[in-house]
């Protein structure tokens, strides 16, 4: 079989090499050829491979509309009867929701990745910030204090578009009711006022100059000069990101070790919004089998979802494993804060580009970057999304 993943360096790459070797040892006659692909290149290369009929047997999947498109094209294997009862019980139905379409399962969740704001406790202390912001007014005040202390407030890798779009996504999570967001996944109707309000919120916040100098040309996760690298090297105080962040940051510190002062807090509340303050947004990373994959593909997914390999996954990637029996190995203070908030959240939404599919997601992401660059407005974002939806 062929296997594509997005861990090109460090402990994550080593984890997959060791895990594949262990599976091959337990399954004589099965050979898995691994290809590691940079995360920002994965979606494009995978879509090309799927459309050309040369897809890997095992490939990354994040559920939602993106996976629905693959399923509709007949490119993913139905795993409903492949997932064992033991695996389903250990991971829980909530983890499988993102990979379930019309009561059929098309992917194996391996990590839950709710988002929020990671920050440097040391830089907050230097700027005289006590506690963490719970409202947008408090976040704006923190930005001003950091600027006064000559510290870049928020790192943003807008070159890759999706990190910038996360800001709009979270404002939409606070402005829109869960019913409005869920309904839009099927209707692709974004005419509700909350969608424009989210863009206006972002424009107002952006006017405070919260982001690092040159954020429009800053990449997200590649090298010390990326947004994650700025946080890792104390060159910026905050970054809005998913729960994979501690592992990425650890790889980018000078010592290649976890950042000792890394903390986390939920996206702040927005006055007057219809969403609940404790609601979270994020993703579920997992893997699917291509439609023509052999039966061993399903065996491999059950194998890696087991407690032992989920513990190894959590440690290698510094993240939250989907297998609840493996969550005891999580010790990173920031991730423990994420996990506590996740367990108490009234509801959790998928990233909007995942929920609404590639066409709408790309329009959202591009529209947000245009707004931040001064070339667009909240109305332009909604109009672009509506146009993209009409073409589906």
TrEMBL record:
Gene3D superfamilies: Periplasmic binding protein-like II
Taxonomy, superkingdom: Bacteria
Alphabetized Pfam families for the sequence: SBP_bac_1
Name of protein: Maltose/maltodextrin ABC transporter, substrate binding periplasmic protein MalE
Coiled coil: none
Organism, scientific name: Serinibacter arcticus
PANTHER family: ARABINOSE-BINDING PROTEIN-RELATED (PTHR43649), BLR3389 PROTEIN (PTHR43649:SF14)
């Amino acid at each position: 079989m062929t296997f594509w993943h997005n861990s090109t360096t460090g402990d994550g790459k080593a984890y997959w090499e060791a895990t594949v070797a262990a599976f091959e040892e337990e399954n004589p006659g099965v050979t898995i050829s691994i290809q590691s692909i940079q995360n920002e290149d994965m979606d494009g290369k995978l879509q090309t491979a799927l459309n050309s009929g040369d897809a890997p047997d095992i490939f990354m999947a994040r559920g939602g509309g993106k996976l629905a498109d693959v399923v509709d094209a007949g490119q993913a294997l139905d795993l409903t009867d492949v997932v064992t009862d033991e695996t389903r019980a250990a991971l829980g139905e909530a983890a499988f929701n993102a990979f379930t379409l019309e009561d059929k399962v098309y992917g194996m969740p391996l990590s839950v990745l709710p988002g929020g704001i990671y920050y440097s406790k040391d830089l907050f202390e230097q700027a005289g910030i006590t506690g963490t912001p719970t409202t947008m007014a408090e976040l704006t005040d923190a930005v001003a204090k950091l600027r006064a202390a000559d510290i870049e407030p928020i790192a943003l890798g807008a070159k890759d578009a999706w990190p910038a779009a996360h800001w709009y996504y979270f404002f939409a999570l606070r402005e829109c009711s869960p019913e409005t967001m869920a309904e839009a996944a099927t209707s692709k109707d974004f005419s509700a006022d909350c969608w424009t309000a989210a863009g206006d919120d972002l424009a107002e916040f952006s006017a405070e100059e919260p982001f690092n100098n040159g954020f429009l040309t800053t990449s997200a996760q590649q090298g010390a000069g990326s947004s994650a690298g700025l946080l890792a090297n104390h060159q910026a105080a905050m970054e809005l990101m998913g729960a994979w962040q501690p592992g990425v940051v650890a790889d980018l510190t000078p010592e290649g070790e976890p950042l000792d002062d890394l903390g986390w807090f939920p996206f702040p509340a927005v006055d007057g919004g219809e969403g609940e303050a404790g609601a979270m947004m994020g993703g579920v990373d997992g893997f699917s089998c291509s439609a023509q994959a052999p039966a061993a593909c399903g065996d491999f997914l059950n194998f890696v979802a087991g407690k032992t390999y989920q513990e190894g996954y959590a440690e290698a990637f510094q993240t939250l494993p989907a297998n609840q029996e493996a969550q005891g190995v999580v010790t990173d203070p920031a991730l423990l804060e994420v996990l506590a908030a996740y367990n108490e959240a009234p509801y959790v939404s998928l990233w909007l580009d995942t929920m609404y599919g590639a066409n709408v997601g790309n329009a959202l992401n591009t529209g947000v970057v245009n707004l931040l660059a001064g070339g667009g407005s909240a109305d332009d974002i909604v109009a672009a999304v509506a146009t993209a939806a009409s073409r589906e």
